[in-house]
């Protein structure tokens, strides 16, 4: 019941925010205006992507240097905490960069249509993908004494879970449950925004709405399947 009330609240907030923002800022004459908004949005995304990739690269290099430095000025516990947090930060930075790169590429391809920016975003997609792959391999460098699988191995996820202790599994399960609940709420919120975006701009978002709905249904079915009594 509490979850349903939260979803209804998100729906109301989505309606108010989506309708008022689009109507007050753009009204009905938003065709050309939205193209300009999309263009500058992609520029902002490109700047953010470059900043995130540079930060991830510097953090990655510092982590590797500290890992190889036997005379580092920190205890083993401090280094474990630093390396764990650095690995998380690098993973997030590269993942966000990859997602933003695809978003920017989509905007440039379908809306902005600037060939130079399209080339730049394609390059950023490949750089983000490369750094994302490299960041996933960091775990074996940070924890060389643990029997962890190499990225790309068959059944990598199962092997990684098998090599994880109970404390780490609890933290992972709690984080996944929280992020899963947030994702479901945000997807529902996105569907509400798409509905009102379609009404205001008269550009159909039916395919996207159906796709999000199917993702939510599959996600719920998968979760129910995994926690069922066996």
UniProtKB/TrEMBL annotation:
InterPro entries: DUF3169. The chain crosses the membrane at residues 7-26, 38-58, 79-103, 115-133, 182-200, 206-225. It comes from the Bacteria. Keywords: Membrane, Transmembrane, Transmembrane helix. Pfam families: DUF3169. This is Uncharacterized protein DUF3169. The lineage of its organism: Bacteria, Bacillati, Bacillota, Bacilli, Bacillales.
